[in-house]
What we know:
GO terms for molecular function: transferase activity. It comes from Desulfolutivibrio sulfodismutans. The chain has 2 helices and 4 strands. By secondary structure, the chain is α+β, with helices and mostly antiparallel strands. The protein has a single domain (about 5-80), classed as TusA-like domain (Translation Initiation Factor IF3, 2-Layer Sandwich). The protein has a 4-stranded mixed beta sheet with strand order 1-2-4-3, with helices on one face. The radius of gyration is 11 Å and the shape is globular. It starts with 12 loop residues before the first strand and ends with a strand. The model has no long low-confidence stretch (mean pLDDT about 95).
Amino acid sequence: MSDLDLSSIQIANTSDARGSACPGPLLEAKKGIGKVKVGEVLEIYSNDSGTRTDIPAWAGKVGHEYLGMVAAEGYDKHFIRRKK
Length: 84
C-alpha cells in the first residue's frame, strides 16, 4: 500500500457490492477490474467485513495494487490500481 490521499484519488470505475456477502464483493471486484485500463483505479463499495481481508489478498495474488480502504457510513470503499 502507499501513502496516497484516497479521498482525492481519480476513480475510473466503481463496483457496488453493498448488501452482498462473501464471495459477492470479490466477484464484483473481479468483474470491475476488467472495466478499467491498466494504471486506472477501481473503487469497490462493500459492507461485508470479510472484504477487508479478501480484496487486498486477491489484488496481491493476481498482480494488482491494493491502495487501501476508506470507511464510509455503513460500508467501506476499497481502491485497487490495475497493474496488468
